[in-house]
């Protein structure tokens, strides 16, 4: 049975790879991102069903997305809250208040906004799967990543709380915790791209697997490392 899937941050990286994976499975894929040109190009490339240019840090944009999806498809089976970014990767003392607020808003608030927006639809249907994308920064520490890590730790713990809220309605909530991968993320926040063993397709496959489990089963959270990334102690 074809599922209706909504993925944020879908113009590149994990989001685009996940959209491709679901589309290959025959699912209806709705893609969202801030940059309309990049989003429409990615959607056309993978054969996505609908693109929604939106700012995930704006609650009103989420309300509009809910109404559009409800009107066009009548339901949402899977929500993947993937949008995020480093904003400013540097010591906390060197960050502006604007940088700090932007990092928290993009990486944590947007996830909460998305879950809030679609909770009613999923509760009414008494079905659905929510996948929130965190980061290994939520569990491990590197210099310069403290603010970003705080936001991503919030995503991990929010996901646990949101699952408890949604469990009585048969709605599953999972947090996927990826390690470093070469997605363009590092370049966007000015620290230079890495060459990691972990690929976007690996994270996409993890998201897809979680969503494909029988409804009776749910994954609380799952961490995906590239075999070449060394963290000592783990």
Description:
The protein is of the alpha/beta class. It has seven helices and seven strands; from the N terminus they run E-H-E-H-E-H-E-H-E-H-E-H-H-E. The protein has helices spanning 13-24, 36-46, 59-73, 97-125, 146-166, 185-188, 200-212; strands spanning 4-7, 28-33, 50-53, 78-81, 129-133, 172-178, 221-224. Helix 1 (13-24) packs across helix 7 and helix 3 (59-73) runs parallel beside helix 4 (97-125). 44% of the residues are buried. The model has no long low-confidence stretch (mean pLDDT 94).
Structure at a glance:
The protein has 234 residues and is α/β, with parallel strands linked by helices. The protein contains 7 helices and 7 strands; from the N terminus they run βαβαβαβαβαβααβ.
Shape: globular
Global mean pLDDT: 94
Order the strands across the largest sheet as they lie in space.
Answer: 3-2-1-4-5-6-7
User: The biggest beta sheet, please?
Assistant: 7 strands, parallel
Instruction: Label the structural class.
Output: alpha/beta
Tally of alpha and pi helices: 7
Radius of gyration over all CA atoms, rounded:
17 Å
End-to-end distance: 40 Å
- Quote the beta fraction: 5-15%
SSE string, helix = H, strand = E? Answer: EHEHEHEHEHEHHE
List segments where confidence is low: pLDDT < 50 over at least 5 consecutive residues.
Answer: none
Q: Give the tally of β-strands.
A: 7
Helix content: 40-55%
């Amino acid at each position: 049975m074809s599922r209706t899937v909504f993925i944020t941050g879908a113009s590149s990286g994990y989001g685009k790879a996940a959209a491709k994976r679901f589309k290959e499975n025959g699912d209806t894929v709705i893609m969202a991102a801030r940059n309309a040109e990049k989003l429409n190009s990615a959607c056309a490339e993978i054969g996505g069903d609908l693109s929604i240019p939106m700012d995930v840090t704006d609650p009103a944009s989420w309300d509009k997305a809910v109404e559009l999806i409800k009107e066009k498809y009548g339901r949402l089976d899977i929500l993947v809250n993937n949008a995020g970014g480093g904003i400013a990767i540097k010591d906390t003392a060197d960050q502006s208040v604007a940088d700090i607020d932007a990092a928290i808003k993009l990486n944590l608030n947007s996830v909460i906004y998305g879950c809030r927006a679609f909770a009613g639809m999923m509760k009414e249907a008494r079905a659905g799967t929510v996948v929130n994308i965190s980061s290994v920064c939520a569990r491990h520490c590197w210099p310069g990543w403290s603010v970003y890590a705080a936001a991503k730790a919030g995503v991990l713990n929010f996901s646990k709380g949101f699952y408890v809220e949604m469990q009585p309605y048969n709605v599953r909530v999972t947090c996927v915790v990826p390690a470093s991968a070469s997605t363009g993320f590092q370049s966007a926040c000015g620290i230079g791209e890495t060459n990691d063993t972990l690929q976007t397709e690996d994270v996409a496959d993890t998201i897809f697997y979680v969503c494909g489990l029988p409804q009776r089963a749910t994954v609380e959270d799952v961490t995906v490392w590239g075999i070449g990334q060394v963290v000592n102690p783990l």
